[in-house]
């Protein structure tokens, strides 16, 4: 049967990548929330694949906020062979630090828990938090651009996005500053890109 009326605009038509990303964040948050509520044992499931990640002397993890998949079991597993660093936002920039004696974890903005201090390092392998990903390594973050900026300034790092399988999208807008992920590890799969 023929449809009447105007042809609906293609999704995203007339929107910049940045506008599209902003809209996608809302639905991505809800999907992640649902996954966090329904999927059990995701942190242990990703930790079980620690051996399959690229070898590294220094690995950066993160302390989860909101409904991010819990990377701590994976960080503990990798910690037997690598130094584990954590992100810290200072003066609007992200650095990675390895905590030492006397460094504590403190509460920061957006519910973040961050090291009070520590020695700055440049990890070889970066475990990246995300709101949504694609099979081709596309990543949607919170929109501050911290990871993309850091990766731009530190070429040659390996990146593995950590996510629930339900956070996959068929596509995401790509901007020139976006750094595609090398792999995505979910509770179901290790997706290697390229
Ligand atoms: N667990 C975790 N740690 C992390 C990150 C992350 O994504 N997850 N980061 C990744 O970069 C850095 C922290 N950056 C962040 C930047 C913004 C927001 C945030 O919640 N933004 C608000 C919107 C801010 C605004 O524009 O007003 C939001 O999404 O509601 C969170 C973390 C480093 N540490
Ligand atoms: N390498 C960069 N150089 C300059 N600006 C950048 C760079 N990376 C990101 N930005 C800026 O940061 C903003 C947010 O970028 P984007 O929407 O890609 O963030 P995100 O990857 O979703 O978030 P995040 O990395 O914080 O989790 C953009 O407006 C962009 O202009």
Quickly name the level 1 CATH class: Alpha Beta
According to DSSP, the number of beta strands is 12
Order of helices and strands: HHEHEEEEEEEEHEEE
Low-confidence stretches: none
> Please, how many helices?
4
Largest sheet: 8 strands, mixed
Return the domain count: 1
Average of pLDDT = 94
What is the assigned CATH homologous superfamily? NagB/RpiA/CoA transferase-like
Overall helicity: 10-25%
Query: Into which percentage range does the β-strand content fall?
Result: 15-25%
> What is the 3D shape?
globular
Strand arrangement, major sheet: 6-3-2-1-7-10-11-12
Measured between the Cα atoms of the first and last residue, the distance is 43 Å
Radius of gyration, whole Å = 18 Å
The CATH topology turns out to be Rossmann fold
Bound molecules: ligand FFO, adenosine-5'-triphosphate
At CATH level 2, the architecture is 3-Layer(aba) Sandwich
Name the structural class: alpha/beta
What are the key terms here?
eight-stranded mixed beta sheet, single chain, 5-formyltetrahydrofolate cyclo-ligase, Rossmann fold, 194 residues, 4 helices, 22% helix, alpha/beta, binds adenosine-5'-triphosphate
Write the layout of secondary structure elements.
Blueprint: H1 17-38, H2 42-47, E1 58-60, H3 72-78, E2 83-90, E3 93-98, E4 105-107, E5 113-115, E6 119-121, E7 125-128, E8 132-133, E9 139-140, H4 146-153, E10 158-162, E11 183-185, E12 190-192
Parallel strand pairs: 1-2, 1-7, 7-10, 10-11
Antiparallel strand pairs: 2-3, 3-6, 4-5, 8-9, 11-12
The chain binds the ligand Nc1nc2c(c(=O)[nH]1)N(C=O)[C@@H](CNc1ccc(C(=O)N[C@@H](CCC(=O)O)C(=O)O)cc1)CN2 and adenosine-5'-triphosphate.
The site of the ligand Nc1nc2c(c(=O)[nH]1)N(C=O)[C@@H](CNc1ccc(C(=O)N[C@@H](CCC(=O)O)C(=O)O)cc1)CN2 has 16 residues, from strand 2 and helix 4.
